[in-house]
Amino acid sequence: MQKYANPETDFPEAYKLCKLFNLTQDNLMSVRNSITKEIIAGLGSETHGRSSIPCFLSYVQNVPTGRERGRFLALEMWPTNCRIMLVKFGSEKDVYMSSKCVIVPHTVAGARGTQLFDFLANNIAIFVKEKKVEKENLPLGIAFAFALNKLALDVGILVAWTKGYGAKGAVGKDVVQLLRIALARHKDILVHLAGIINISAGSLMAVAWSQPTCKVGLIIGTATNAAYVEQSTECELYEGPADLPLMIINTEWGRFGSNGHLDFLRNEFDKLVDADSTNPGQKYYEKCISTLYLGELVRLIIVRLMDQGAMFKGYSKDWIGIHWKMEMKSLIAVVSEPPGVYVKAQEVLDKFKLRNCEERDLAMLKYICQTVTDRSAKLVAAGLAALINRMNYHQISVAVDGGIYRLFPRYQQVLNQTTTQLTSPMNSFEIIIAEDSPGVGAAIMAGLAVSLAQPNR
User: Fold this and answer.
1) Phi-psi region of 93 (alpha: psi -120 to 50; beta: other; left: phi over 0)
2) Helix (H, G, I), strand (E, B) or coil at 173
3) Which of 400, 353, 96 is nearest to 221 (CA)?
């Protein structure tokens, strides 16, 4: 019989704290239903401003058919780097991609907005010359990891940067136009900047090219977000032509909870993490889910148990007491070991100078990590089920991007099982790891935008 198989009796102090993270089926159904209501509010013209899920319009109204062909450029913009790509769509399911990753220097990221976009334009110019396509006026799409207010396919007003970017001159301005102006200074190249989409919509578009049933793009990483396919008639803020029936929606669901819908499940550790974050009082859903916060939740529980004398007795808290030092990869390593094996668990603890730990403490660590990450997967499942039920397709695919799903088998299992429990039996789904980056989706978007702008095609 496996040792430490019953946490309630094997380590009751840890069990008591971890109970705060347990969610019943009724709890999850409540979250799912609240998310549905907030999505409806986000789509409404009169209720949009009050919704914690704003459901921004992407102005992408055509999903790929898989028959798109040609060469396109893409720019992925992430918090720490950017990636410039040349994507060629050949025969069906044949995608050729060449890319270059560029680290954005702190001096540039913190400078005026114009300097940042001059830096991006300069690197795009270098890239297209290296690929010998500088005179071909290829369509370029941007996959953007920052908050945008989209006013058209090629108009995206920057709402805010994340930590590390101080380019204040760009906030409140059209990102596409800023890059267009910067590119125009390079008289020796021709690039057609066609549009901008967020990262989750990019993942959706990338998978949909080879998997036409893909209707959701899901991001689970240092942040969380989802994009999905909505009926245009449900988008009350949309004032464009009525001839296209679909609209990809950028939910920005990480903000969910600001209207009190998560108050019943947020515990004292959630509140400590929120208070110590860079954006206290915001993004409660994200702080229960994303990899940026899960390690800190685990660390706080460990410190509390050490204070109680229930874990790592006699060890110093000098290293484990440092905030934000428990990494997501450590949680994955601990939980992914076979039952009764704690080699990785001890390796993780060695980094905190907690050496030669007792097996009971190692088992307790695994239980804590498992409890916190299981709750994350279940809360994502509640959101995903809300989208699947709302779209009401008989069969859909969900494109998921993020290392926690890709590298963590238990997370995959819990997310799939819980989504199935919360989804109507009439709506079948398959979760697919997005092998192609969001930039591929941005390239597809750019190609579709150009082809649709040409009336003879």
Assistant:
1) left
2) coil
3) 400
Edge-first strand order for the sheet with 428-433 is: 56-57, 246-250, 224-231, 214-220, 395-401, 428-433
Q: For residues 445 and 449, give the distance between their C-alpha atoms in angstroms, rounded to a whole number.
A: 6
Contact 209, 95 (CB under 8 A): yes
Determine how many CB atoms are found less than 10 A away from the CB of residue 271: 13
Q: 427: which strand partners? A: none
Whether pTM > 0.90 for this model: the answer is yes
* 288 close to 271: Cβ distance less than 8 angstroms: no
- The position carrying tokens 């494109």 is 399
CA-closest candidate to residue 4, choices 308, 298, 305, 359: 359
Q: Which residues contact 79 (CB under 8 A, 6 or more apart)?
A: 145, 146, 162, 163, 164, 165, 222
Query: Splitting the chain (457 residues) into consecutive groups of 10 residues, what average pLDDT does each group show?
Result: 88 98 98 98 97 95 84 91 91 79 89 86 97 96 91 91 76 94 96 95 92 94 94 94 91 96 98 95 96 97 98 96 97 97 97 97 98 98 98 96 94 98 97 90 90 56
**In terms of DSSP bridges, do strands 246-250 and 395-401 run parallel, antiparallel, or are they unpaired?**
unpaired
Helix (H, G, I), strand (E, B) or coil at 117: helix
Q: Are 411 and 446 within 8 A, CB to CB?
A: no
Please calculate the CA angle 3-336-290 and round it to the nearest 5 degrees: 120
Residues 208, 32, 289, 425: is their CA dihedral positive or negative?
negative
CB 207 within 8 A of CB 436: yes
> Among all chains, which residue has been given the structure tokens 């905190």?
352
Query: How confident is the model at residue 1, as a pLDDT?
Result: 57
Query: Which residues partner with 147 through β-bridges?
Result: 160
130, 131, 83: which is closest to 103 by C-alpha? 83
Kind of pairing between the strands at 81-89 and 70-77: antiparallel
Q: Which residue has the tokens 């660590």?
A: 365
Separation CA 76–CA 98 (nearest Å): 13
pLDDT of residue 457: 40
The pLDDT value given to residue 456? 46
pLDDT at site 67:
78
Rounded-to-integer distance, Cα 428 and Cα 158, Å: 36
Residue 167's identity, in one-letter code, is: A
Q: Which tokens in the block code for residue 307?
A: 């204070």
Q: What is the DSSP letter of 394?
A: S
Give me the amino acid identity at 221. G
Q: Which amino acid is at 71?
A: R
pLDDT score, position 196:
96
Q: Which two tokens stand for residue 167?
A: 């380019």
Ramachandran area for residue 427 (φ above 0: left; ψ -120 to 50: alpha; else beta): beta
Select from 56, 153, 57, 174 the least CA-distant residue to 447. 153
Structure tokens belonging to residue 218: 């899901």
